[in-house]
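Aim 2 progress. For Glycosyltransferase 2-like domain-containing protein, the working sequence is reproduced below.
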Amino acid sequence: MHLSIVIPVYNEQVKISKDIRLASEYLLNAKFKGEIIVVDDGSSDATIETLTKLQRTSTLKFKLLQHRANQGKGSAVRTGILASRGDYVIFVDSGNCVPFRYATDGLKLLTSDQCDLAFGSRKLTESVITTPTKLSRRIFSRLFNTFIKTYLHVPSTFTDTQCGFKVFKTDVAKELFSSCQTKGFTFDVEILLKALKQGYRVCEFPIQWRSDADSKVHPFKMSYAVLKELIRTKKLLARLDRAS
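Predicted structure tokens for this construct:
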């Protein structure tokens, strides 16, 4: 099996070296052939310097892609997935909130042809939350989930669209992301709904998750931008419906 691991980063100079080491250890321990793709989304800290130094001085092997200006998480994930060469591709958030070993559970769903996309979910009964998130983020998450299910008609069977731990068949991922127009936080919703419209099978799997105390996501500060993205997604899906 050849697995591509995509790690989008923005101002992650403290975490990224450990992320790459853990990704490399996972590929080695799982006996997978693979590649690690780090996409820097216009960081303003020393992330790029940290990564280039790591490439020069470390035995860790990874591909570094760079956006000169910050474009948004969706754009960074898109760049990494379109550059991937594996049979399967996973994108993971920086910070190791989900141990890499859970990727194997998602891959099993794909290799057994139970689905084409497998999303890690923090909200399944079997999932384990070791460090809960802040109350404000939990409130925002509930409001967000209610909104996307009523406004965008995300099926109620999906418990967690926003977890940064998703596994794809690479050909499917490239098809979906090549036309992805959501550059920011809510790109996952566009990808999910387009996948369902195109007849792809999407399933969720339980994970272990811990909250990242240093997360760059500030939900209520981002609420206006999130709302604008979801409205654009609604219009995009309506255009696709009219064209089909």
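Strands lie at 2-9, 33-41, 63-67, 88-92, 117-121, 128-131, 165-169, 202-206, 208-210. This observation will guide construct design in the next reporting period.
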